[in-house]
Structures are given as C-alpha cells and as structure tokens.
Design goal:
Helices cover 38% and strands 15% of the residues. The protein is an alpha+beta fold. The chain is globular, with a radius of gyration of 20 Å.
Length: 451
Amino acid sequence: MTRPAATARAIAADVRAGRRSAQAIATETLDRIATQDRMNASTRLLHRRALADAMRVDAVVATGGDPGPLAGVPFAVKDLFDVAGETTTAGARQRAAAPPASRDAEVVARLCAAGAVLVATTNMDEFAYGFSTENSHYGTTRNPHDPERLAGGSSGGAAALVGAGLVPLALGSDTNGSIRVPASLCGVYGLRPSFGAVSVEGAYPFVERLDTVGGFTRSPKDLAIAHAVMLGQALRPAGAASRVAVLGGWFAARADAMVLAGIDRIAAHLGAGPPIVLPSAAAARSAGFVLTGAEGGYRHLAALRRDAVAFEPATRDRLIAGALQPVAAVREAEAVAERFTAELLAALAGHDLLLAPSTPMSAPRIDATTIVVDGETLSARADLGLHTQPLSLAGVPILSVPLSLPEDAMPIGVQLIAAPGREALLFETASALVAAGLVACTPAPQEAEAA
C-alpha cells in the first residue's frame, strides 16, 4: 500500500514512471478514509468519479504521455467548492437540496487537469463562518492528534485529512484565517495566497473582499507545485529571505510561550532584525469583524428573513448582528483596513519576510469555552483568529508552517508573511526551515499506527 504520509511529489513520480497505478492509489485512499477517518473530516467520498479520473490518468501513462505534475495524487476539497454532479453545501443544511453543480470550480478543474484525482469533500463551519469546524448539521471535526480537541476552521475537515496522512493535498478557503488556523492546529502547511491571485470561481462566497482559496499539504514543496497549478503559471525562483523581522506588539501579545520560542528560533536562524510594531493591528482585528459581519450578513439577509431557524444559532446571530451594522461603522472599518494595509506594505517594502504566530495557542479542547494564554483569558473559538484576522485585510500571501516540536506536543504554527506575489519566497523559506529542522509535520497517532 501507499504509505499514508507519502508526499504528492512521490506519488506523482511513481505514477508518471509507471511504478504505481493511479487507480490502485485512489482505491487505497478511499478505503483508508472510509476506515480511518475517525475525525469526521470528510463529508462525501467520490468513489465513481475518483476511479474514472484515475483510469484516465493511467491511460495517458500507458500511451507514453505525461498526465501532469500531480499525476495520480489524491486530493480532497472543502465542501464549498463546486464539484460537477454534486451539491455544494457550504456546510449548511438549507443547501442540502440545492441543484448539483454543473461543472467543477476553476481550481478543482486545474488540479484535475494536472493529473490529480478528487476523492472526497470535507467538513467546514456553516457558510465558512467560524474557526472551529463545529457543525450542528454535519458534526464536529476532531483534531487528528487528539480527538478531544478542535481541528480549527473553517477549513478544518481539509486540514484534518492532511494532518492524519489520509490525503497528501486538500483545498480550503481563507477569509480571516480559515486555512492558517486549522493548518496550525493540525500541524500541516497551509497557504493563504495573494488576494486575487488564484481563481475563486465556483467557490461559494463568504466575504468577497477577503476570500481566497489555497491548499494544505505535509510538505512545502508539494504546496508549491499545487499552488503553481492553481495559479496557472510556474513559480520563479525567489532566492533567500535576507531581510527578516518578527511582528511585535499585537502579534507578540496573547501568544503561547511555545510558539513565541519557535518564532525566536526561526528568527535567529534567518538573521532577523529588530521587531516591527504595526500600530493599527488591534483596530484592524476589530475592523475585520465589522467587515466580515456586514458583508456576510447582507449576503444571507434574504435567507435569514425567510427561515432564520434553518441556520446554526451561532452563525445566525453573527449574521444578524453583521447585517445591523450601521453604514458609518463599515466606512470606519474600511478606513482602518486601508491604514493597516499601508503599515504592513511599508514594513514589507523594507523586509522580505515577516514572522507571526498562526494561532495564539495549540488546539483547545472541544469542551473548553475559554483558554488562558499569557495570563489572559481568551475565547477558545473566536480568538483562534487573533493573529490571522488583521493580516487578511492586506491581501498579502501568508504560509502557516508547523513548528518542529516533540512528538507528544500538540502542533502549532507560525505565519511566514511576504509581499504580494512572493509566494515562491514563502515556499523556499519553508523548505530551508525544514532542512534546518525548525519546521516539520508531526505524525498524527493514527498515521503512525498505519505506517
């Protein structure tokens, strides 16, 4: 069998060389998810489609052709991406009877054109509004490293499948941190790309001014390949990050000592200069809440008026509150977002790379409502996005990387932040940090048992 933690690159190399068949890999992957997804990460297994797509990949190889850089690589997608012939639920009960999608989302189509094989859809917070992947309709997704803890959200199902080693690649969306938060808690790599760089066509929208789509993997090199495919062009070599700084102030407060120590190790290795403080960070976090609630509430206002009880209570309350935001508050939030963006871009004009925690803590217990970090009591849900939400406003690319920690420690990640269009620098820096032993995916228990 394929090792559960096999990289996408290794799988594609075997398939392209004819050493393994895409059909066998797809079958094994589907069987593993069916028998080992104890996390409630997947919402639908796509047996018929996966085997048909895998057969086409094998047929290309058999005739001497090249199916593409992701030949035979099984992948999963958050259940807000259109999949031809399937209903896109966006984690919402009221969409369960929606007409099936007529075609794949653009990024799904591009990955499949590069030889990847879609095997499953994954769980999420309702309408992507949350940081925990607790869904009253489809159940809570549990952390692959400890089933009593959260996987993060709203792309928690995708991150958990990758974290458990059940698929080497999964797609999520990130509005306020919905890729970076679960990547941190599940111990994998997760990219929020430059705003507008990767097509969101066919992805159910949440907040269009902030929405991005990106991938989860267990290797930065795998993520670089997948991103290039979704981007539609090759990544140019970026070279080393020679000007590095840690974000201080808001980003250094309310953070667990373990993640701050990990950032210090990375900063020392990269020769970081003095910390940088972005004065508007706290206000930007508040602005993110206002803009998210206002646009999300407006988007769902008609449905709320028609049948509010169909929504999850927590989602409903946030959307109603957002829809009631006065125009003046939204305008003020937009001004704060512009000011914070200018501060961050000015910092990046003088630096190649900035560092910040991905989450203030490792995964909270599912039954916890609060958690104490740095002597302060934080929400075990909303405050998971404490350090991701402000950065989302600026549209810059951000890669969450998992710190190298003892195997008995719960994962936690660090954000690598670069200027727009510099994703290649993020991938190359992450690969260098892997080589230095500073970042790594820790095997999840069920993956270690299966290996």
